[in-house]
What does this fold into?
Amino acid sequence: MESIIKSIVVTGASSGIGLSICKLFLKRGYVVFGTVRKKNQSSNLKKLLGDNFFPLVLDVRDKKAISESVLTVKKHLGHNSLTALINNAGIAILGPIEFLDPAVFQRQIETNLIGTLNCTQAFLPLLKAKKNTTRPTNGRIINISSALGGKIGYPFYGAYCSSKHAIEGFSEALRRELTIHKVFVSIIAPGAIQTPIWDKAENDILINKYEGTVYESAYKKMVSDMKKLGANGLQPETVAKKVIQAVETQKPKLRYTFINELSLNLLYFAPRRLLDRLITKYLGLTGKKIEKYFD
Ligand SMILES: NC(=O)c1ccc[n+]([C@@H]2O[C@H](COP(=O)([O-])OP(=O)(O)OC[C@H]3O[C@@H](n4cnc5c(N)ncnc54)[C@H](OP(=O)(O)O)[C@@H]3O)[C@@H](O)[C@H]2O)c1
It folds into this structure.
């Protein structure tokens, strides 16, 4: 009888949540294909993660590199289909929309949203069950969103929230469309997780970047909150464990979160004007001190 290989493709395997996903799936006996952007990361990761890990060197914005990786994965899988695609690669860009360089905003959307689209389209054929195998199984797609960024627009997270709100709509439409192929799509929506994502964004975030603008103190408060939240966040393994659940359970959830469901629902369904008042008052965006900028 043909042996069945369980396998995943995870984008953004070099650090944080993606790296944890690789480690946990390897422990469970999966063959793991993880994407990195730099050649040297690929050999380092191979050394760290071992024989069942295969690095794919690609940028999720680069369709040609993705197509080449699909061929590599296909060759390894042979008669097997791919168990799951985990669209995890992402960046975080912060700043007031009024001053964000459109090219920077575009990089956010191209990485988090178009990158997910590119990988989904490219790897989908490998997720479809192979009819000529003894135990045909259909694969799953897991898209990494954000518990708050995917549902609530928070000041200065405009670019990031736009990308994650889009991931939520994209995933819901995709789930319904892929019912025809029996490929299930789940969203994993973490809160704050201890990963290097915010350090990598340092150049874009810079606490003093908006000094002298009306946003100065609110922006500083947000960056300082963000740093505290990041430092006290959950470990990336917590997210990786949920990904395993979403891939292996018979009946996966549509959306997995890590924050108490009741508090989340209170936030999601709170009247928007009430949230406006609470958030703008908290950050000092109510306009009371604005006069000094018009002197
Ligand atoms: N950390 C949190 O608090 C948090 C909360 C909610 C959601 N998330 C989401 O979780 C996902 C993983 O983030 P993380 O926190 O684990 O951050 P991370 O450690 O910075 O990991 C991000 C990964 O994505 C890769 N990446 C970035 N741009 C890419 C591109 N254009 N092409 C291919 N790969 C690219 C990075 O590669 P390089 O090493 O080359 O940069 C890295 O491997 C993201 O989608 C993020 O939005 C994170």
